[in-house]
Design goal:
alpha+beta, seven-stranded mixed beta sheet, two-stranded antiparallel sheet
Length: 417
């Protein structure tokens, strides 16, 4: 379907805005061609506004830099050794990459050679729907029938699935991720692709753990998550990516019907697959999740079965001020995961009361000696204050603690007397 003009499609101006048009013009004036490639083209054809715009050119990295200097375009050599230069226009980054072909691959990394052949560059991409490119005049270049596959909602590798997988074993997970995004039905996996995955699945052991999480993020919040995760488990992929028998597909996917999947963080949904925070912690370390993701996951596992307002008010009161932003971050995720806007609004609008006593005041006002008793009675007083809906004044808490302290000093009766 190469040669079709797609400039009339919705979101065309998102792809070819003033900045990308300028890039194409500057390179064209120097005798080079620039096209927008990959996911942005796929999204354009789906009627979805592209978020990221990647550009490819038949200019070498050195020639890209020459064009930028001549056009006075700020540029950053972000991935120069791999053929990528980032152009900055109006504060927005645009990655422009020289066309490449793979000369050697080991399933994780590739040694590339530059080329001027757009079709050869497209042939090294993973899926047919990601191998299309478009020129500024609207011409679509579709060497592997990607547009038809997109219309048919089929997810297929470019050429032989086994060859594409062996070039980068992460493509096994990318297949499932895009299946959830593109496919019309939940269980129409391409048989040839599944057979190739069975043969080469052990290659996943070579993939860095953080790259696995980047793909799995989109699987756990994506369409057909239950079918896809079950298929992955049936293919014995779980142990290769460090998902243990304690990973519960049923509880994760049960929550899908309630959660706001458009805005929720993937780790929030992932946490529902674990009954114990220790199992989640092991996976968090293995997949190298961020500290915020760890906090959210642990928070949900500990508190997702609670719904009382007072429980979360007490938690917030006990959270140090400098950490309360983390509480709100995780609490929001919990509410999004079960569509509980009422609870979210109640806590977000609530003015957090402050416990009216400090530890040093207990020594002076209650007569406590310095040492561990201060912490014990501070906790006791705060618990009493919380039980009274945070309404006790300082003097009332002090009187309560004095009484408790006096009781503790009273001699106990001798049972034999």
């Amino acid at each position: 379907m190469s040669g079709t003009n797609v400039s009339g499609l919705v979101h065309w101006n998102v792809l070819f805005n003033d900045n990308t048009q300028r890039i194409c013009k500057e390179f064209g004036d120097h005798g080079y061609e620039v096209r927008i490639v990959g996911g942005a083209v796929r999204d354009l054809l789906r009627g979805v506004a592209p978020k990221d715009v990647d550009m490819a050119t038949n200019a070498t990295p050195d020639q890209i830099v020459e064009v930028c200097k001549g056009a006075e375009i700020k540029h950053i050599l972000t991935g120069f050794e791999h053929g990528t230069v980032t152009l900055m226009l109006d504060g927005t980054p645009y990655e422009v990459t020289t066309l490449r072909v793979d000369k050697e691959t080991d399933g994780r990394h590739a040694k590339v050679e530059y080329t001027t052949d757009f079709e050869a560059d497209a042939a090294r991409r993973d899926l047919t729907i990601n191998a299309m490119s478009v020129r500024i005049d609207g011409t679509l270049f579709d060497y592997f029938d990607g547009r038809n596959h997109l219309e048919e909602r089929r997810v297929l590798f470019v050429g032989e699935p086994a060859e594409r997988i062996k070039e980068d074993y992460l493509r096994i997970l990318r297949y499932f991720r895009f299946y959830g995004r593109i496919s019309q039905k939940d269980d129409e996996f391409d048989e040839k692709t599944i057979e190739a995955i069975k043969l080469h699945k052990d290659g996943l052991k070579k993939i860095s753990r953080e790259r696995i999480w980047l793909e799995m993020k989109q699987v756990v919040v994506g369409r057909f998550a239950e079918t896809i995760l079950t298929k992955m488990k049936d293919l014995d992929l779980f142990y290769l990516i460090n998902l243990k028998h304690t990973f519960r597909i049923d509880t994760l996917c049960k929550q899908h019907s309630l959660a706001d999947l458009d805005v929720i963080q993937p780790v929030t949904m992932l946490s529902y697959a674990f009954d114990h925070h220790g199992d989640f912690t092991k996976l968090r370390r293995d997949w190298k999740m961020s500290m915020d993701e760890d906090f959210i996951g642990q928070f949900l596992i500990r508190h997702r079965h609670r719904s009382e307002i007072k429980h979360f008010q007490d938690l917030l009161v006990d959270t140090p001020k400098h950490c309360r932003h983390k509480f709100h971050m995780a609490f929001k995720e919990l509410c999004l995961s079960r569509a509980d806007k009422g609870l979210l609004e109640t806590i977000e609008k609530w003015t957090v009361p402050e416990f009216p006593l400090r530890g040093d005041q207990l020594i002076k006002e209650v007569g406590l000696p310095k040492g561990p008793l201060v912490s014990k009675y501070f906790t006791l007083g705060k618990a009493r204050w919380k039980d009274h809906q945070y309404s006790m004044e300082k003097e009332e808490v002090i009187e309560f603690l004095k009484g408790e302290y006096e009781k503790s000093k009273a001699p106990t009766a001798d049972p034999e007397s």
